[in-house]
Backbone:
């Protein structure tokens, strides 16, 4: 397809696509004349992913380039590639070194993973940005004096496990390989605002049921 | 307690507390001399909430003041107050007027709420920031050409409903009234990064189970 069709099918304006091409977030098209290039389905998918990372994930261009490098690294197997790409997505604030609240949070997170039997997460531990995101969140609650123990976190972790099954089911609708990794990264980012919005709607529903 | 103890127990530095007092995010203490004031447990709770809104919710001071106004409005009953306070929390991007993707997203969201039987959410509809947040998220997926229908959203909504039960159970640990509304707002904001982090840990776990 030509640039105009790529723009129409992706909903991304032509000048934005040209910018992504210049920034090498999108591979060049197949040149068919001095002024025209042809783009394929792979370009369309990649463009959607770039748009998701930058517009919804609010990622700087340099970070998006890093995520895409992991997506397209053929030297890694799909599971590792998937992990590497999702790891490169920004994860919010890092834990505050080793103040007492962070120590408590780390022990709580470790006990939670132990109880859930999440062996993979236990194995990656401190190296995983998602682990550090959880520790940082728990530490904030500890620091502000909100109770936050394993018993309280368990229902959230169990819901997260159910969400992950839904997430991976969506990913498996795509063909194996690069396409699947692209979908995993895009859906991780795109479903976050939907999930937080649904949680708030569900809260209003539940609050109405209890106190309404 | 004195200012120093309030700072120690909340983990918030004294100059920051003085700033919140000047900005009226925190009610003044009970003056006991020309230079000293006494603060109570209510100040401690309010301070934790302010900190959660500004530091974790990344809210501008003016928005935090608006949320707090809803928290402390005695003319509203607890359920309405809770709703008003949570509604005042920023919800991310608004839907894009009435482009075709937003129309599709609105129909999808309505069909989802209908299928879930969430009557309260259906009643508030377009007026609810959480509803608009969901519509905006679905519209982004539609615009980028990712499939996003009711069947795909249902497991996320069901998890959201389970999360809301956990959320409201936490809120009910507090005494009724202002304290409960404060906890609801703080926990809504504080659990968001923890939940997103747990989802990514669970994804890695599930990905390892399927492809590892």
Residues:
């Amino acid at each position: 397809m030509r640039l105009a069709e790529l723009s129409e099918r992706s909903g991304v304006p032509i000048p934005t696509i040209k910018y992504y091409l210049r920034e090498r977030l999108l591979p060049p098209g197949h040149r068919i004349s001095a002024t025209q290039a042809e783009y394929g389905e792979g370009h369309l998918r990649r463009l959607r992913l770039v748009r998701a990372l930058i517009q919804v994930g609010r990622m700087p261009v340099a970070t998006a380039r890093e995520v895409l490098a992991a997506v397209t690294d053929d030297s890694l197997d799909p599971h590792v590639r998937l992990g590497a790409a999702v790891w490169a997505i920004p994860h919010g604030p890092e834990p505050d070194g080793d103040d007492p609240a962070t120590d408590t949070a780390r022990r709580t997170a470790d006990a939670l993973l132990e109880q859930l039997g999440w062996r993979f997460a236990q194995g990656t531990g401190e190296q995983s940005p998602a682990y550090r995101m959880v520790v940082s969140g728990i530490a904030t609650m500890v620091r502000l004096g909100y109770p936050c123990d394993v018993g309280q976190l368990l229902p959230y972790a169990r819901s997260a496990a159910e969400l992950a099954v839904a997430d991976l089911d969506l990913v498996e609708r795509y063909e194996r390989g690069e396409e699947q990794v692209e979908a995993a990264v895009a859906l991780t980012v795109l479903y976050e605002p939907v999930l937080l919005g649904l949680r708030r709607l569900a809260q209003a529903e539940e609050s109405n049921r209890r106190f309404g």
User: Anything to note?
Assistant: Residues 178-211 of chain A form the longest helix (34 residues). The mean pLDDT of chain A is 86.
